[in-house]
Amino acid sequence: MMEHGQPDEEETAAERKMRFLFALRSRGVTDARVLTAMERVDRGQFVRGLFAERAYEDMPLPIACGQTISQPSVVGLMTQALNIQPRDTVLEVGTGSGYQAAILSHLCRRVYTVDRHRRLVREAQELFREMGLVNIVAMSADGSFGLPDTAPFDRIIVTAAAEDPPGPLLAQLKIGGIMVVPVGQSDTVQHLIKVTRLASGYDYEELRPVRFVPLVEGISSE
Q: Quick check: is 70 catalytic?
């Protein structure tokens, strides 16, 4: 029982979580498994410094290396579009803060996540260890080429915008596999595209307009 005069911090955390989930639902994230995964992953652990107090708002926020942590509703919609199954192996291009990979880890068998910024990978690995997420393999690599040695993948998610879905990533998708990728030039409106690999080729579905940092080739010095 709460002592008189003490703020009920647990209640405020529960209210905050309810508001967070309500915002996701109201923006179209309705898949129960995705909502449960997002409820289990505390976005506050991935946002540091000046913006920490805004971690539970539905907005993108700056992180290190000039990158961003995506808006939670966009993370939810991208994850929902992947239709991940429990036995799937997923490739994420653009680790960033690690938030998206942490959510994926609750939905699939294994997540491979790559980023060109070594610092982001190191910090994400540290968080994954702290959170006990043992089915994530994070590494610094040029994500535009995917991970040919580990391919093919059931699902691929790209968290940076390319002018076209990158050919090497399309080739690393299993038949029946799904890739979700923002497509468009970085200074114009981009569109989130869902690509399904069929035996006869690829099926493209446009989901919604988005804004992402550009997909850059090579590995950064930091």
A: yes
